[in-house]
Amino acid sequence: MGGSSSLPSHLRAFKTLQGRRGPKILVLGLPGVGKTKLLEAMKLGDIESFSPFEGFMCEVVKGDRATIVSWSCQGDLRLTWPKKCRKAGVVFVCDSTDRKGISKARISLQKFFDANHTCSGQPLLVLASKQDVDGAMTCAEVTKALQLDLMRTRRFKCVGTELQDSVIDSPELEDGLSWLSRQLGLSEDYFRKKKSQSSSAFRRVFSSQRRSIQEKKETGRMTTRARSAP
Ligand SMILES: Nc1nc2c(ncn2[C@@H]2O[C@H](COP(=O)(O)OP(=O)(O)O)[C@@H](O)[C@H]2O)c(=O)[nH]1
Ligand SMILES: [Mg+2]
Hints:
Layout: H1 9-17, E1 25-29, H2 35-42, E2 47-50, E3 56-62, E4 67-73, E5 89-95, H3 102-115, E6 124-129, H4 139-145, E7 156-160, H5 171-183, H6 199-218
Parallel strand pairs: 1-4, 1-5, 5-6, 6-7
Antiparallel strand pairs: 2-3, 3-4
């Protein structure tokens, strides 16, 4: 405990939440791009949501196998992450419908890698979300706009996802996560949801949890919610 009080608040928060081995995946992206939706679709475990400081939102999933940390902030991913996080695969979610905002996303991603050089060797999975919306950018367009090809030393893959409320299974997401698992030296199904879990039950739990989080946000309180798999 001693010394941890001098850490920046976001590091203190991760110290308590990330677990002994550190997260396997860091999910990054601007607000509203679909990070929470992704965590819901993965169904790996309870989602804890909190705000380490104003304007920043963090979600942590501590599944049976893997811990996942999702980080949302207003355009600034220039935080230096704890060492344990630097072994994680990086999932960058961007909103394919937001053509104007894509350069902001590119700058955020660049800032993240600039501040975390040790993450540079880690695999990068880019999720081009909201592919179900008319006029969404294709993966090729997103790859170009984020200048992923210029990141020569980094392994990356870009997949398009459509995670609407009614869509529970996403082959594209599974494909992306299998790729990430392989790159991290894990089994293909490492990040795959448990087959026995009932999707309709999940839908019910998630929609009630989302409502509850929203209500808490509106009252201006810190949000901490646990979702329990049925
Ligand atoms: N149509 C569509 N909407 C999506 C998709 N992914 C996320 N959304 C919606 O985008 C909004 C923001 O998603 P959320 O996961 O909360 O974003 P976050 O702020 O990055 O966590 C929500 O209304 C989601 O339902 C998608 O693939 N398709
Ligand atoms: Mg969110």
